[in-house]
Structures are given as structure tokens and as C-alpha cells.
Automatic annotation (TrEMBL), chain A:
<dbReference type="InterPro" id="IPR039564">
    <property type="entry name" value="Peptidase_C39-like"/>
</dbReference>
<feature type="signal peptide">
    <location>
        <begin position="1"/>
        <end position="22"/>
    </location>
</feature>
<keyword id="KW-0732">Signal</keyword>
<dbReference type="InterPro" id="IPR011990">
    <property type="entry name" value="TPR-like_helical_dom_sf"/>
</dbReference>
<dbReference type="Pfam" id="PF13529">
    <property type="entry name" value="Peptidase_C39_2"/>
</dbReference>
<feature type="domain" description="Peptidase C39-like">
    <location>
        <begin position="43"/>
        <end position="153"/>
    </location>
</feature>
<protein>
    <submittedName>
        <fullName>PA2778 family cysteine peptidase</fullName>
    </submittedName>
</protein>
Automatic annotation (TrEMBL), chain B:
<feature type="signal peptide">
    <location>
        <begin position="1"/>
        <end position="28"/>
    </location>
</feature>
<keyword id="KW-0472">Membrane</keyword>
<dbReference type="Pfam" id="PF20332">
    <property type="entry name" value="DUF6627"/>
</dbReference>
<dbReference type="InterPro" id="IPR046735">
    <property type="entry name" value="PA2779-like"/>
</dbReference>
<keyword id="KW-0812">Transmembrane</keyword>
<keyword id="KW-0732">Signal</keyword>
<protein>
    <submittedName>
        <fullName>PA2779 family protein</fullName>
    </submittedName>
</protein>
<keyword id="KW-1133">Transmembrane helix</keyword>
<feature type="transmembrane region" description="Helical">
    <location>
        <begin position="108"/>
        <end position="131"/>
    </location>
</feature>
Amino acid sequence: MPYLRGHRRWALPALLLLVALAGCQSRAPLSAGMPGEAQVPAVPFFPQDDYQCGPAALATVLGSAGVAAAPQALVAEVWLPQRQGSLAMELVAAARARERLVYPVTTPSALMANLDVGYPVLVLQNLALSFYPRWHFAVVTGYRRDGASVILNTDTREAEPMRWNRFVRTWQRADQQGWVVLPVGELPPQTRPVLLVQALEELAGTAGAAAAAPYWHATAQRHPDDYLVQFALGNHLWARQQSAAAIEAWRTATVLRPQAFAAWNNLALALAALGCDTADALRGARHSEHAPQALAALERRLAATATTVAASTAAASATATNIAACR
Amino acid sequence: MNTRAVIVRALVVVMLAVQTLMLPAAHAAMIGTDLNGMIGTTDLLAQEQRADNQARLKAALERSEATSALERFGVDPAQIDERLDRLSDAELASLADQADELPAGEGALGVLVFILVLLIVLDLLGVTNVFPRI
């Protein structure tokens, strides 16, 4: 056929062979310095009843994150009788409702890294075929033989070993969905700012900003130089009425990415609300990349705020207490 | 007399209506000192997520093994880069995850597999034409 010319003739079959070879990785990817085997200590074990792997797996990871919950108590919350099973979404929501951060684990290396530092991982598996699925929730609690097998708390079996390549196939057929549920104020070993901020937002949405506060503390230390983290931290602190700290975080965000409008916008409005000078922040907003109507709205709001603050009798005392924040 | 009463009533109704409509606006302007007008975190997340995935893919494609593999297929990396915009958020995220899993250093095999997946996806989108039969 003319469409496969020259080197391409062999390139495609060769690559397909490589794909096939890569498909049967027999070991989990362990990064340098990780021991040949690991077992998360003191993971509670709940043998599942009937089809109730979801509640059992959820109770396991919750117990490891410091929330005592019996699977039977979770059944009403996460078990759907018609489906004889649970939805991943509901398990995650139930963990958040108990004021715990849930972070996604979607790659083999992230799975191993979490086990290495002592966080068991809740995984969704498809034990049958992609077109005839049999969904199952289990908890990976460790690995052995340099990652050639993983240890699972699954159905009625505790610490059951499973060969890596068998496990990873069942996990891949479930789109490699997995989650860690974290003890208060702790973060998984590897975090990406966007995913972390999203997880924190979802936690605050379900359990309130106060529940997210200890995790936010750890996040700010982990990613001090990330624009999104600093911007979202500002929003979190402002919602928690820690105005000075919020302004500090937004200021940091504007330094990290001066061309971003959002941080300038919130900084300017916060300064105005406290009766501080907004000239610098407004200048920053004008120089950033913005939609004209967004800047116009900000200018309108700042003008309105200036008049209301000036007219307010409380302004004098408010300004006195907020001088520190104005800086 | 009667007409006058009707006009007065109509005026009162109009004035009340205008006041009712104006009140929330005025109120909003006053509490504009607070959260009003602030940009929320969720407003930024989707866009940040896409930018992050694109950056991760770009980093993988800039590795020397990746560039040479693309050259072998006769694909201009700059062109792919620009066409990644066409991928949906989910496709982009999945490719970026795979790129992250590539072994660092001498993992040419992994890179080739990844490039193949990328080319297939782009082929399906009609961006490249490496496998015309797909």
C-alpha cells in the first residue's frame, strides 16, 4: 500500500509490539528509595456483607484517617439497593461529609507513593470485562516483592495478595479510579496544585470552610509559589474572616502572576472593604489581562465602596483596626 | 375628579414599583463592600486545570526522545502543540496523566508508546494523518 512508505512500514508494527510488551508490566513502578515491601499499619478490616463492598471499603479508609465508622452505619448513606452497589461519587461525598480531604489517586506511581508513606488507597476495580463489567471496591494496604504484588483488603479477605499485573488490569478497566482519605491536616506525598485546590473546594462545599482549614494550612506550606493555591487560599481565609491573612495571600498571588486579573480584583475589593487605599491594586488590575467589562465592574464597585465607607460613621474605627492589613 | 383619582393612583403604583425595583440595586451597591464582586475559586478551576494539563503534555513532548520520535513520523511538534487545543478536557487530562507516568531518563520505550497513543488520538481527530486507515 502506498500510504506506508519507507521507514513507516516497519515503524507501526514495531510500535504495536512495544505497546503489547508495555501492556504486561509485571511490577508496580517503585521510585528510588522506596523499600521492596510496605504495609500500612493498623488498617481496620471490615469483611463485607453480601454485595456491600462500598461501605466496607469506605469504613476501612475512614478508620485509617481517624474516623470510626461501621460499614452498617454507612450502608444507608452509600448503598443503592436497586444497583446492589455503591457509586464512587457517593463514597467520596460520604468521606467529605466526615470532614476529611479526599484526593484522587489515578496512576500506579501515585498509588505506590501513598502506600509508602502510610495511606491506604480505596480503589475501584472491574473484575470482569470492559463490556460486561463487575464493579468492586477494595482497599490497597501495601505491596510485596518489589511491587510484584499488592496487598488488598477485599470482600471477606484481609491482607490478600494479588499479582500486580492482574490487579492493574482490573484497575485499568475501571479507568484507574482511586482515592486517599487523609487524616486531619495531612496531604498525600505527591500533589498537583489544581487537583489539591479542587479537592479542598469540594471539601469546603460539603463540610464547610472550617473543615478545610487544617488542610489549607498544609497546602499553603506545600505550594507557597503557586498562583492558584495563593489565590484560592485568599478566598478561603476571606470566607473565614481572616482579612489580613487573605490580603497577604492575594498579594502573593499578584506577585507570582501579575498578569492574572482575578487576584488583583479580589485584593482591590478586600482593601476597599477594609477602608484601605486601593490605588496600587487597581493599577495592577488595569495592567493585567482582563475582560473590559470585568475591569469596569471592579471600578464601579470600588467607587461605590469608597462612598459608602466614607459615609459610614464606623469607618474611622474600622480603619484604625485594619491599618495592619492595609500595608 | 374621577380621572384625577385614577391618574394619582397610577402614579403611586408606578412610584412604588420603581422603588421596589431600585431597592435591591441600592442594597447591592451598599454591601458591595463585602464578598460581592469577588472572583470565586471555582470560577478559575476549569481553566487552570486545562492549562496545567497542557503544560504537562508539552513538557513530555519537549523531551528529546519524544521530539525524535515525532520527527521519525514526520510530524512537526509545533503543529501538534497548537492542535492539542482541540482535545476535550477529559482527553487532555488522560494524555497528561500518561505523560506523567513516563519513566524519566532512559525510558525511550515508554515515550514511544505514549507518542503512539497521542498520534492515534490526534489521527482520530483528523489532525495528523499518520495512520490513514483509522
